[in-house]
Amino acid sequence: MAAPVKRQYVAVIIVFVALFELAGSHLGKAYSKDDILKYRGKVEKMFHHAYDGYIKYAYPYDELRPLTCDGHDTWGSYSLTLIDALDTLAIMGNYTEFQRVAKLVSNMINFDIDINASVFETNIRILGGLLSAHLLYKKTGMELEPGWPCSGPLLRLAEDVARRILPAFDTQTGMPYGTVNLRHGVPKGETTVTCTAGVGTFLIEFGTLSRLTGDPVFEKVAMRALRALWNVRSPIGMVGNHVDVKTGKWTALDFGIGGGIDSYFEYLVKGGIMFNIPELLDNFHEYHAAVKKYIKRDDWYMWANMNKGGITLPMFTSLDAYWPGILSMLGDNDQAMKTLHNFHQVWKQYGFTPEYYNIPKNEAHKGREGYPLRPELIESVMYLYRATKDPFLLDIGVDIIEAIEQSTKTKCGYATVKDVNNHLLENRMESFFLAETTKYLYLLFDPDNFIHNNGSSGTVIQTPNGECVIDAGGYFFTTEAHPIDSAAVYCCSAAKKEDDAILQGMHDNLDLLSLLDILDSTETIIGEKLILKQKKEEKSQKLKGETGTNDEFEKLVENNENLDEKKNIEKEKTKDVKDENIYMKNENEKKENVEERNIKEENVSKNNNNMDVKKDNLDNKEESLDSVTSDNISKTNSSIKVNIDLKNSELTTSEKLESKHSQSESTDNQSKNSNTAIKELTILPKQVKQTSQTNLNSLVQLLSLLSGKEITADKKDAEWVPDVNHLYQVMQMYSNVYKVKPELMMCKAQPFHMRWSVNGEMFEEE
Ligand SMILES: *[C@@H]1O[C@H](CO)[C@@H](O)[C@H](O)[C@H]1NC(C)=O
Ligand SMILES: *[C@@H]1O[C@H](CO)[C@@H](O)[C@H](O)[C@H]1NC(C)=O
Ligand SMILES: *[C@@H]1O[C@H](CO)[C@@H](O)[C@H](O)[C@H]1NC(C)=O
Ligand SMILES: *[C@@H]1O[C@H](CO)[C@@H](O)[C@H](O)[C@H]1NC(C)=O
Ligand SMILES: *[C@@H]1O[C@H](CO)[C@@H](O)[C@H](O)[C@H]1NC(C)=O
Ligand SMILES: *[C@@H]1O[C@H](CO)[C@@H](O)[C@H](O)[C@H]1NC(C)=O
Ligand SMILES: CC(=O)N[C@H]1CO[C@H](CO)[C@@H](O)[C@@H]1O
């Protein structure tokens, strides 16, 4: 009796399975956990095949040549693939190999080489790779040095290479040159033209570096470059794809979401979220409005002339495929899925996405039929799968794995597809195949990866900055897919120290009985101050700032602008005071300063008092500021008067370059200075002596800072030599405060010279 029943069951099951398969071909099949892990295993094998090939045949060259099984230098001469692939080892759980290579890199790699390197590629591949690996030290069981995560050998390497590309940022506009010599700075006669992404893709790496090391210069130059681009957008809110860093004039006028521009948009979103900079998200939303208005057609995205908005190229470019991931990050999964669907159709048509695809003709664009193993499509698939869990997305992942396995695998690696029409191969395997493509594929099929942590668990560490929770899932991927744990970055920033102090102060002072009293008296004080301030503002609409720190100035501007937001003023000020201190160097690193630190911390923990002092000074600014400063200048029309303390701005630049140790000292001195400055404010008499010449100079300086552009009073800038000392001088006065009013800060965009683009002219740098 039993046997026939079993047979029936089997038959039923077979029918069910068949139905499932049928349904699956239309609706996306159900993936069991085992299926998913099977594909994860395939990806891991894929990675190791290519990685082992690189190590065996190509290291220490930059890249593997997968057809000839040897190596060659491409972007630098710094074992690019090794550094770029390092954190993928950690994500795949191969900690032993990570440890081996991390030690190798910290011992072997030296960036003091006479080589002209791409500023952009060095940043995203080398700097990003080093920072990410540095932050994964604990996860992978590396031996940690005492200051970690605020110090460590890979962080020092990252800082070293960042300083080597820094001279590129010393331009009149703040936009960086495209090329720099790692030993000698910007080569003489170097072209001033670079692509938009090459200007706007630094914030995540540079911001992370600044907050980990305590030197704000990196974050400042990255922000200045972003603002410079924003300031030269066209009247209809678009950017072109090539720009002259000396003049800010566009040299290629195509606006699109893809190649040449892509990661600029990406960093507006990711940088804006990661560092909490609303300004950048605002910028993105304005660009997005232009995208929707001018270049979006049926969930495709075209290219348009940045000044007129007319379509110039009806092309999908392979790099466009990151866009659905960004939309998903902003919560628009519907639009993201529709667009991804289109892009996937291209993949299915050829088995790969060609570099350019002509949308109306439904064909790969002649001369751009290659597929260099790019990650962008799979990147978007990974983000969208996290957001929707739609199994259709796993189908795409499987498609991609199988296409790569079948058509691009060679004896020692995977090769670029030269032409998607015939799947002929080319002797190149870019480092992003190991840094990005395999990583995103792996993460798609590894639902329990630590990267996907939803914040329900974390690791508590003791650091010089006190207790931190890291590895709680706050990972941001750089544009080269290097994950940065934003919690670790925050852990090292002085903002954390300030927050802790405030918290500690609260605990110390918590007295339930007197709580009501405190509230009452605070309210009264705030009320009085507000009335006072309002009176002052009625008396004159002039507003005066102080000192070289623009922070104060911008804050005042903001306050002046928002008369109706008065209630928030006290709160804002407290916050801004904190902002200024974000970069206070962590004194703990210097053992001899332990004592000083204790005293300081003591003082900080009485922060209520401290902050009140500062607040008072801000409120008294009108009476007191004139006296301290050597110049005062007025910005026409906006009726703002600003005084600049040139003493503060001339802060020792050479020290900054020497070593971290002296940097921290100078930062300490700086913050002490500004404290003293504030104290002096109330004491000095209202006596001002100025010459109109210094006024003019300061005005020029100020406008340069605010606009992100260097405005020279005279026109002898023909012989400009980028110089890191000069850069430090300029950036000393460049604000970190992100709450700016663009309408006040903006210089009018210069008229662009008109040039219509011709097919094939775009992306000559690619
Ligand atoms: C880690 O990577 C190395 C080098 O590719 C490989 O030999 C080793 O088998 C890997 N270990 C694991 C556990 O995957
Ligand atoms: C770097 O570029 C400059 C200018 O093009 C050139 O003179 C120099 O030889 C180059 N250096 C190297 C190492 O290629
Ligand atoms: C977060 O992840 C944990 C473990 O993976 C899970 O138990 C929990 O339900 C998740 N929480 C949310 C809000 O998704
Ligand atoms: C701490 O505060 C006291 C008095 O408020 C002051 O005398 C001392 O110099 C301060 N110490 C530091 C390191 O700022
Ligand atoms: C810091 O200030 C002290 C006293 O003001 C001075 O002696 C010291 O040289 C300064 N250090 C640096 C690095 O400027
Ligand atoms: C500086 O500002 C003060 C106050 O607005 C003004 O009286 C004075 O004339 C200004 N100095 C110069 C040199 O413009
Ligand atoms: C917006 C604004 O206030 N514009 C003024 C700028 O200054 C000129 C000359 O003083 C005025 O004519 C504008 O009205």
Work out the helicity level.
40-55%
CATH top level class name of the domain at 32-69 and 328-452: Mainly Alpha
Strand order of the largest sheet: 5-6-7
Query: Structural class, please?
Result: mainly alpha
**CATH topology heading of the domain at 32-69 and 328-452:** Glycosyltransferase
Determine the mean pLDDT. 76
For the biggest sheet, the summary is: 3 strands, antiparallel
CATH A-level architecture of the domain at 32-69 and 328-452: Alpha/alpha barrel
Active site: 121, 262, 355, 376
Biased composition (Basic and acidic residues): 578-604, 612-624, 653-663
Region (Disordered): 537-559, 578-633, 653-674
Enzyme class: hydrolase
A few lines on this structure:
This protein is mainly α and 766 residues long. It is built from 30 helices and 23 strands.
Detailed description of the structure:
The protein is mainly alpha-helical and 766 residues long. Among the domains are: 1-30; 32-69 and 328-452, Glycosyltransferase (Alpha/alpha barrel), CATH 1.50.10.10; 551-587; 616-720, no CATH class. The protein is 53% helix and 10% strand. It has 30 helices and 23 strands. The strands form ten sheets. The protein has a three-stranded antiparallel β-sheet. Helix 12 (323-329) packs parallel to helix 14 (376-388) and helix 14 (376-388) runs antiparallel to helix 15. Mean pLDDT is 76; it is low at 1-5, 19-26, 518-527, 540-569, 585-692, 708-715 and 740-766. Bound molecules: 2-acetamido-2-deoxy-beta-D-glucopyranose (7 copies). One 2-acetamido-2-deoxy-beta-D-glucopyranose (NAG) binds next to loops. One 2-acetamido-2-deoxy-beta-D-glucopyranose binds at residues 636-637.
